[in-house]
C-alpha cells in the first residue's frame, strides 16, 4: 500500500475538523484518539501502529457523525461499527474506488 500523508483537516457534516497526531502528553495511556466537538478537532495518539491510527481516525469520525446525528451511540457501538467498517474498506479497495468514483 502506498504511504499517503495524513490530511490536516477533515470535512464532517459540513464542518472542517482539524486532524492531528500527537504524543501521549495530550492523551492518557489507554486513549488512542479523541473527538472534540466544541472546537472541531480530532486528535490521534501517534504512538500507535499505522493501521491502528487509521482505524482510530475512523472511530473518531464516527463519534463526530454520531454527535451531529444525535443518535447517542455508546462507546462499544462506535468501536464495533468502526472496526467492522474499517475492515470492509481495507478489504475492498476496488469497491472504495467505485463508491468514490475514482
How much of the sequence lies in strands comes to 15-25%
Instruction: Write down the CATH topology.
Output: Arc Repressor Mutant, subunit A
Number of DSSP E strands: 4
Could you tell me how far the N terminus lies from the C terminus, measured between alpha carbons in angstroms? Answer: 17 Å
Q: Which stretches of 5+ consecutive residues score pLDDT under 50? A: none
Q: How much helical structure, as a percent, in the residues?
A: 40-55%
Kindly provide the radius of gyration, computed on alpha-carbon positions and rounded to a whole number of angstroms: 14 Å
Task: Give a structural overview.
The chain has one domain (9-100): Orthogonal Bundle (Arc Repressor Mutant, subunit A), CATH 1.10.10. It has a 4-stranded mixed beta sheet, covered by helices on one side. It contains 3 helices and 4 strands; from the N terminus they run ββββααα. Helix 1 crosses helix 2 (75-91). It has 102 residues and is an alpha+beta fold. The chain is globular, with a radius of gyration of 14 Å.
Amino acid at each position: 500500500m502506498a504511504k499517503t500523508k495524513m490530511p490536516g483537516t477533515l470535512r464532517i457534516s459540513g464542518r472542517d475538523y482539524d486532524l492531528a497526531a500527537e504524543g501521549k502528553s495530550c492523551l492518557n495511556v489507554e486513549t488512542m484518539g479523541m473527538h472534540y466537538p466544541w472546537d472541531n478537532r480530532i486528535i490521534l495518539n501517534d504512538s500507535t501502529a499505522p493501521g491502528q491510527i487509521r482505524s482510530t481516525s475512523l472511530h473518531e469520525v464516527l463519534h463526530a457523525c454520531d454527535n451531529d446525528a444525535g443518535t447517542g451511540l455508546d462507546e462499544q457501538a462506535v468501536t464495533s461499527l468502526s472496526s467492522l467498517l474499517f475492515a470492509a474498506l481495507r478489504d475492498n479497495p476496488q469497491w472504495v474506488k467505485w463508491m468514490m468514483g475514482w
